[in-house]
Automatic annotation (TrEMBL):
The keyword Disulfide bond does not apply. Residues 1-25 form the signal peptide. This is Polyisoprenoid-binding protein. Residues 40-204 form the Lipid/polyisoprenoid-binding YceI-like domain. It comes from Novacetimonas cocois. Keywords: Signal.
Length: 207
């Protein structure tokens, strides 16, 4: 009975501790746009990803992602239209969790990473669409081709990261591109031309 009592108490303590920890974690970042500090931010690459999804012959919607982004964000919530975003993504980082496919995507038939190692996005216009949303239009350069792209963006939250003490702001964004317009035409239309982008962006305020 004593052992069972202690076991039950330990379980209850663990549940309470977990609940408190989750509550504390949820309170780290604020979704309130007014909590965002004006200034220039640097991409936090470890928690920034560019995901992509396209149809695989109509059988499935297949996804992968790029990591290792770098760049900067200049933002003032009071003057959102003046926001400036400049991001570079190493195409070599492409990851579909299938090594053979990753190697194929890096080849000259697809992204040709030896010739075009980076993709870039530079904003040209930012328009507020809601309390915590905006459309960011900019020039996307991929595979040596530059085309305008609009990203529908939502503020996820901002606050001081308790681990590195850096003030951080995070966004999520979505957009669609036609890969053939960027010269990536392999297997179109058998493999989908329209590519949906899903972006998780984290930025750290520079002191």
């Amino acid at each position: 009975m004593i052992k069972r009592h202690f076991a039950t108490s330990d379980l209850m303590a663990a549940v309470v501790f977990s609940t408190v920890s989750q509550a504390s974690a949820q309170q780290v970042a604020s979704p309130d746009p007014s909590a965002v500090k004006a200034g220039t931010y640097k991409v936090e690459p470890y928690h920034t990803q560019v995901g992509f999804t396209l149809s695989h012959m109509g059988f499935s919607n297949f996804s992968g992602f790029f990591t290792g982004a770098s760049g900067s964000l200049t933002i003032d919530p009071a003057h959102l239209s003046a926001t400036s975003l400049d991001v570079t993504i190493p195409v070599q980082s492409v990851d579909t969790t299938v090594p053979k496919l990753d190697a194929e995507l890096k080849s000259a038939q697809w992204f040709d990473v030896d010739k075009f190692p980076n993709a870039t996005f530079r904003s040209t216009r930012v328009v507020r669409t809601g309390a915590n949303t905006a459309n960011i239009t900019g020039n996307l350069t991929l595979h040596g081709v530059t085309k305008p792209v609009t990203l529908k963006t939502r503020l996820v939250g901002s606050g001081t990261n308790p681990l590195d003490k850096m003030f951080t702001v995070g966004f999520e964004a979505t957009g669609t591109i036609a890969r053939s317009q960027f010269g990536v035409k392999q297997y179109v239309p058998l493999v989908g031309d329209d590519v949906t982008l899903t972006i998780a962006g984290a930025f750290e305020l520079q002191q």
